[in-house]
Amino acid sequence: MQPASKLPMAVRLSSATTALLLIVGIHSATNAQTNPAWNNKQCAVVLTYDDAIDGDLDIVVPALDSVKLRGTFYLIGSSPVVAKRLPEWRRAAQRGHELGNHALMHPCDGSLPGRSFVTPDNDLSKYTVNRAVQEARVNNVLLNAIDGKTARTFAYPCGDLTIGGVKFYDQLRPDFVAARGVQAGLQTPAQIDLTNIESYMINGQSGDYLVDLVKQAQASHTLLVFLFHGVGGGHGLNVDLKAHRQLLRYLKAHEKEIWVAPMVEVAEKVKAAQASATRKP
User: Fold this and answer.
1) pLDDT at 150
2) Which residues belong to any copy of the NodB homology domain (predicted)?
3) Domain ranges of the chain
4) β-bridge mates for residue 238, sequence order
5) Which residues contact 69 (CB under 8 A, 6 or more apart)?
6) CATH topology of domain 9-279
């Protein structure tokens, strides 16, 4: 075999180029740090939309469909937008969007500060645990009648977890894959509490802010959950249409590195990853 110095220049250059590409490839693969829980991508992003408003069907679903991304819509069973536009919700589910459970009546704890909007009929502090559980289950029946699915996630109305100090979701664990809360945070699969998944509530932030959150999730290889209400209007909590569009464009442009999926699919992956970790010696 000839020494490298005696090999033709073209061969030496080819060998050097191959070695360089191999090193770059290994370096890139190391930096990517893909995770099975994130569908073998760098991170996971979940887009959630609360309260079953007209804007979900008029603005958000078409926007997501236009870039072939899927989200989770947390429906209040008693919302007139559910009853009046049921076929449209069914079509959204058929296109891969999750219809999540946001309770039948959206009860919130009226005893807390700043809760003057809570009516006596929908005051969670006046509920029994059994009532909250039964209403959530009734809403599941309604959602199943719309989409035919049994696996879905729950979102706490107003982020309220307890009734008289008791966590009512404890009785609902068999009914759901997971539940989304309202506390902000980025988490690895091991850090996630499937009974209270963290999320970032969006209200008036810029598109740059939304994209920066995604970049943080990419860098830390974590789960990022967005909590939207109105998009382009239609709700007291709102994000500008342009900002929302900027986020979707970034997610679509980086879909090879970012897993964007409904909450139920991400939660199922996390659940499997956590179970696998506990089985290891």
Assistant:
1) 96
2) 41-161
3) 9-279
4) 230
5) 47, 248, 251, 252, 260
6) TIM Barrel (3.20.20)
